[in-house]
Specification:
It is an enzyme of class 2 (transferase). The protein is an alpha/beta fold. 41% of the residues lie in helices and 14% in strands. The chain is built from 15 helices and 16 strands. The chain has an eight-stranded mixed sheet with strand order 4-11-10-9-8-5-6-7, with helices on both faces. A four-stranded antiparallel sheet has the order 12-13-16-15. The longest helix has 28 residues. It is globular, with a radius of gyration of 26 Å.
């Protein structure tokens, strides 16, 4: 039985909220009346809570305004009581410690120029059109927010996605597409459908750091296969691993505009990759998040085009091409469709309906293709400008990939330069980058940096690149 007086229990409750940052300095504290209602306490108990907090120096009364949280200077009592042992006040590192520590450091810094983002600048997305489509959808269906979406998602949107896939020589069934919360959920669902904890999953090396986090969160063993900026995954190395003693349950690849390499697999390699995985009963998971950002008018072929055994799970999203804030992705899981649909229903139910309606209305018009053409042209120019500036400002010996689309550049620094050192020193001056070390569990990419080119080139960006170059030159 808790013998601590009720007023002190409540005071400790609010002190914990102040210590953890839930209640911040300058915010208004709940009124006496509200405390009485919310905690079912008497007037005298609520008043005692406020007096206790005043004694600790964290509450001040303002005439005709109420009580406010304040930063304690010299409190009347010796110190705030310690937080309960169950509350972790340290830095969360969690899954894939290096990635988490980098992300945490970035969140705490004041960022002036962000080169770590793989997204386009907000001004490049058709935000006004999407907003107008949302308003129209709500007018047409005032009850939209009062109903739930089917697990598979909006059927009109799924039909549009299936029709667009035809341009990439890919056959998808609208009824067997499941709309997801971005490609991250799609890949999560794919892995949960075909693996068990402890299974081995192969990935390209380097690969998107978020994928490494997903794999670790699912307790899967990661096997890295070398990849290059010219042709993607090394098929000879993959074949040797597939023939080895260790069973590879699944392989995840980004064949079109790879993150971070920017590579595009040649069609012959795509066909061979599909064949290899089918022959060794390894599930192939394709992430096609960036395919629509290719420079050419001719769509890139997907791996799914060569899938004859329903052995491939296709994942994609609109996060980079259309609307990052909507978090719309999709998965076509082949023979694992029923299991994926069940997992989706169990995990998160159907995705939010309004954004699907708005996107469907836009993608079904010729304006969508015109928008993509403008975006591709703009990104080509931005990548060229960024690449030239990097070679101009960075130390001699730096090299930059030349991807045929997308928002990313993979930069190789002179070997004596450390991208992790650069990351921390750049954060100190308000510049964020993605150090190469987070794109692999090995240490082979510490002298690489991923640079995002989604923002229009400007004197501010040029100055930031010049600053990065100066920091690197001090490492030599």
């Amino acid at each position: 039985m808790n013998t601590t007086p009720l007023y002190r229990q409540l005071a400790n409750h609010y002190l914990d909220a102040i210590r953890s940052g839930t209640l911040k300095t300058g915010e208004r504290f709940p009124s006496i009346r509200l405390m009485m209602e919310k905690h079912a306490v008497s007037l005298s108990t609520a008043v005692q809570v406020c007096r206790e907090l005043e004694d600790y120096g964290v509450l001040e009364a303002r005439p005709r305004s109420g009580n406010y949280i304040r930063q304690p200077d010299t409190p009347a009592k010796p110190a705030l009581p310690p937080l309960p042992p169950t509350l972790d006040t340290g830095v969360y590192v969690g899954i894939h410690e290096q990635v988490s520590s980098v992300l945490k450091a970035s969140q705490r810094a004041t960022i002036k120029v962000n080169f770590a983002s793989a997204y386009c600048a907000p001004a490049l997305y058709p935000l006004k059109t999407l907003q107008d489509n949302m308003i129209k959808a709500l007018r047409q269906d005032p009850q939209l927010f009062g109903t739930t979406s089917p697990t598979g998602g909006n059927i009109a949107l799924r039909h549009l996605l299936a029709r667009r896939a035809l341009n990439a020589k890919t056959q998808l069934s609208a009824e067997r597409i499941v709309i997801t919360n971005g490609a991250t959920e799609a890949i999560n669902l794919a892995l949960r459908a075909v693996t068990q904890p402890g299974d081995t999953v192969a990935v390209e090396s380097p690969t998107f750091y978020g994928l490494l986090q997903i794999l670790e969160s699912l307790n899967l063993r990661v096997l890295e296969v070398p990849a290059s900026s010219h042709g993607g995954i090394n098929l000879a190395a993959l074949e040797q691993l597939l023939q080895g003693p260790e069973r590879i349950t699944a392989l995840i690849v980004i064949p079109n505009l790879h993150n971070p390499l920017g590579s595009i697999m040649p069609d012959a390699n795509k066909a061979r990759l599909v064949q290899l995985c089918a022959a060794h009963d390894t599930v192939l998971i394709e992430d096609d998040t960036y395919g629509d950002l290719v420079d050419t008018e001719q769509p890139l072929s997907t791996l799914k085009h060569w899938d004859r055994d329903d052995n491939l799970i296709y994942c994609a999203s609109l996060n980079k091409t259309l609307a990052p804030g909507m978090r719309l992705g999709w998965i076509s899981a082949g023979k694992w469709h029923d299991r994926v649909e069940m997992l989706k229903h169990t995990q998160s139910r159907g995705c939010e309906a309004l954004s699907q309606r708005a996107v469907s209305a836009f993608m079904g018009t010729p304006s969508y293709e015109r928008y993509l053409r403008r975006l591709r042209k703009t990104l080509t120019q931005q990548r060229q400008q960024m690449s030239a500036a990097i070679l101009r400002h960075f130390p001699e010996g730096t090299s930059v990939t030349a991807p045929q689309g997308g928002t990313l550049l993979w930069v190789e620094l002179p070997h004596e330069c450390s991208s992790m050192v650069l990351f921390h020193e750049a954060l100190n001056v308000g510049i964020q980058i993605s150090p190469g070390g987070i794109f692999s569990n090995s240490k082979r990419f510490d002298h690489f940096v991923r640079i995002g080119c989604g923002a229009p080139y400007s004197p501010r960006i040029d100055e930031a690149l010049q600053t990065l170059g100066q920091i690197l030159k001090t490492q030599r």
